[in-house]
Structures are given as structure tokens and as C-alpha cells.
Amino acid sequence: MDKLRMVGGSPLQGEVIIAGAKNAALPILCACLLTDQTITLRNVPDLQDVRTMLKLLQEIGVEVRFPDAADRSYVALNAGNIKSSEATYEMVKTMRASILVLGPLLARMHSAKVSLPGGCAIGARPVDQHIKGLKAMGATIKIEGGYIQAETPSPQNRLKGASILTDMITVTGTENLLMAASLANGTTILENAAREPEVGDLAELLVKMGAKITGIGTDRLVIEGVDKLHGAEHSVIPDRIEAGTFLCAVAAAGGEILVKHCRPGTLDAVIVKLQEAGLKMEVGSDWIKASMSGRPKAVSFRTSEYPAFPTDMQAQLMAVNAIASGNATITETIFENRFMHVQELNRLGADIAIEGNTAIAQGVEALSGAIVMATDLRASASLVIAGLAAQGETQVDRIYHLDRGYDRMEQKLTLLGANIVRVK
Ligand code: EPZ
């Protein structure tokens, strides 16, 4: 298993180009299942999770092409000859986002068999709201042998529009139901819909494909189902979490960086908190110049649904708080077990205590390098950030977690002057 080895202490300098958003690309790739025409995508990030999703789609029968062999961010997909509407346990167990084929397959093929995603390190992460919404649209759903078996109501063979209010705000739940509703017979109203920018990006693509959706960006989406959707071209929005991760890296390690090809308007909550921590930022239309000198100030925060502070940035800002002056209270309200980076940060000399869904970080003067283990995607980013700030050498094991959501993180950090290498 690959490891990352770094020697902390050098400030970051230079430019970093942000890739397309993982959590927009994953539902957007699945949207190709809704039509027999070609969907052409740009700015698709070259990540393990994206490669896994492309493999899953190919196994379902989607033709995946890279029109320019040298450019993995430019992908053409055609689901004209779907041969199976099943996502097996083998495929789904490596990536929970595989659940995103359920809605489109059911809407297009009128049946779908998708393995229930197992638990995950950060929480139980059930999919009951996805199922509740599809049932409201008339689907019959059986859970058997670890699989979700869904059928549309015969003889119309189509889902029907429905009013759906999810019990909690769910990002992929909203995305699954949005895709299913776009081909349903009648109008669907999704109340309590997720407002994450990645949901909006999917909706923009669906509209380009001929879907009739209003309320994009709000918590109430109204979808008037159509009989067919057609092909489209789309460029995936920049990854706000990757951008936020690099902002936390410079806040912890010091220096000055220019974050390019990002969308600052999707990062307001993160920018506000990092300003409180002492990061100086100049914000442009698609760039952020960030500089940090001296020690960051502790900043308390609580995660919540968009537009509030994102749970996917919690571990990264905690790493900044680990070496900040003062104490910070960090409350995680979305997932029940998203503090596994705490004990690893403490191995680096941090002083963080957990009380239920709150962590109390007492900032220390300096961290000292050690061997630590990544446990999930954003935890691994947090450990890399801490390693960049720590004195001496840090080794982060199991960085396959990192590779799921970051495109060549160590190469981008090396270009910023960090002393970091991947060890096979
Ligand atoms: C998406 O996961 C993201 N993944 C996650 O990013 C992100 O952390 C999460 O949204 C929250 O923003 C993708 O978009 C591929 P949820 P998702 O459904 O959709 C509960 C990363 O690091 N819930 O919004 O699975 C659930 O247990 C990943 O890139 C139900 O109870 O998250 C959680 O507590 C990690 N029943 C809360 O709601 C359901 O049917 C929010 O989950 C659905 C969700």
C-alpha cells in the first residue's frame, strides 16, 4: 500500500490548479444512463472514485470514450446499449456513490438491482430516503440478499411524479430522486432538497439534456417529467473541497499560494472561518490568493448542510486548529463517526479531546512528525496538512483513501514547495 512521506516546516509558495468536483462528477456520470444519446463531459477529475464509477457504468453497458487520449478530464459516455441494470456488491462495496445508478436505471430501464452500500468508516449512512422517495414515485422495492430490487409500476412502466419531503437533507438522495423524477410521468416536488453546489451542477446538466427543473439551488426542486432526454455537453464545476483543503494547507504550513480554477462563491463558509484563523485572502472570479505568516488563531465551528460549513472540510480545519493559538470547539452534525483523524492527529502531538459529536482542540506550539494512518478520505487530507506543519518526518499510511478524492495531491504540493514523496 502506498504511503506519503513528508518533512514539515517549509512554507508553501506558488500556484495550484483545482480539478473538477468529485461529488459533482459522480452523479453527473450516472446521468448518462437517462438517455441513449451521448453525454460529453469536461473537467472530470482523474480520481480513483471516478475510475471506479466509469468501470461500473461500463459493466452496465455504457460506452466510455476519451476523445483525446492525452486528456482524462474529457469523457464521452453513451448508454444506448445498456445490457444489465444491476450494480453488484463487488462494484458497490468499494464506493458508496454507486447508489447513484439506482434512480437513473429505474427511470430509464424500469428496473434496477443495486447492492445496498455497506456501512462506512464515518457512519452508518443508510439509503432509506432514496428508497422512500422512489416508492413515492410508484416504484416497488424489495430488499433481498443485500440488494435493492426496484421495479416501476406496470403497465405504464414509468415512475409517476410525487411530492416528496425527505426526513433529513441528503445530497445523493436528492440527486437520485432528481434523476428519477426527470423521466417520471408528471410533476415531482422535492422538499428539503440538498442545496450543495454539486446538486446544482447535476441539475444544470439535466436541464441541458431536456429536463424541466425549477428551484435549482434552493431546498425545493420542482421537476416536470419528460418522455425522453437527449445528449448534452457539460463542464464539471471546480471542487470546492479540494480548494478548501489547499487553503487549510497554507493556513497550517504558512506561505503564500494562488488557488486557480476554483469557484470562490461555493466556499463562503470556509473562507469566513479561515479569515477568522488569520489567513489573508484576496478573492477573484475563479481564483483565491491566500497567505499566512505566523501561527493561526483557533477557530470554533460546527458542520452543517450547505451553505453552512461543510462536513467534508471538518478534518482539514481541525488540523489547522491543532497548531493554532487558543482552543477550538468543533461540532460534527452530519455524520456520527467522523472524528477518526483525532487520534492520529494526537499521535503527531495534537491535544484534541472528543466529547460526543464535539471535539475540543487545545492548540499546541508545534506538532512532531510520526507514522500515522489514514482512515477515510478527508481524514487523510487532514493528516497530510498536519504533516506539512509538523517538525520532522511524517509518514501517512493507507493513502488509497486520499487517492479516492484527490488528483495527485503530492504532486500539487511538491509544486508548492512541500517536501513530500509517495512511497510505494
Ligand atoms: C454526500 O454523501 C457526499 N458524497 C459526502 O462526501 C458528503 O460528506 C455528504 O454528502 C454530506 O455533505 C457524495 O456526494 C458522493 P447524505 P451522502 O446523504 O449523499 C443520513 C466525501 O468526502 N442519511 O447527505 O452519502 C446520512 O447517514 C464524501 O467526498 C440517512 O439517514 O450524504 C448522514 O448522516 C464523504 N438516510 C446524513 O443523512 C438516507 O437515505 C447526510 O447524508 C440518506 C442520508
Automatic annotation (TrEMBL):
It catalyses: phosphoenolpyruvate + UDP-N-acetyl-alpha-D-glucosamine = UDP-N-acetyl-3-O-(1-carboxyvinyl)-alpha-D-glucosamine + phosphate. Keywords: Cell cycle, Cell division, Cell shape, Cell wall biogenesis/degradation, Cytoplasm, Peptidoglycan synthesis, Pyruvate, Transferase. It is found in: Cytoplasm. The modification 2-(S-cysteinyl)pyruvic acid O-phosphothioketal is found at residue 120. It comes from the Bacteria. InterPro entries: Enolpyruvate_Tfrase_dom, Enolpyruvate_Tfrase_sf, MurA_subfamily, RNA3'P_cycl/enolpyr_Trfase_a/b, UDP_GlcNAc_COvinyl_MurA. The active site is at residue 120. Pfam families: EPSP_synthase (PF00275). UDP-N-acetyl-alpha-D-glucosamine binds at residues 96, 125-129, 312, 334. GO terms for molecular function: UDP-N-acetylglucosamine 1-carboxyvinyltransferase activity. One of its GO terms (biological process) is UDP-N-acetylgalactosamine biosynthetic process. One of its GO terms (cellular component) is cytoplasm. Residues 8-413 form the Enolpyruvate transferase domain. Pathway: Cell wall biogenesis; peptidoglycan biosynthesis. Its main location: cytoplasm. Its EC number is 2.5.1.7. Phosphoenolpyruvate binds at residues 22-23. Belongs to the EPSP synthase family. MurA subfamily. HAMAP family: MurA (MF_00111). This is UDP-N-acetylglucosamine 1-carboxyvinyltransferase. It comes from Polynucleobacter sphagniphilus. The lineage of its organism: Bacteria, Pseudomonadati, Pseudomonadota, Betaproteobacteria, Burkholderiales.
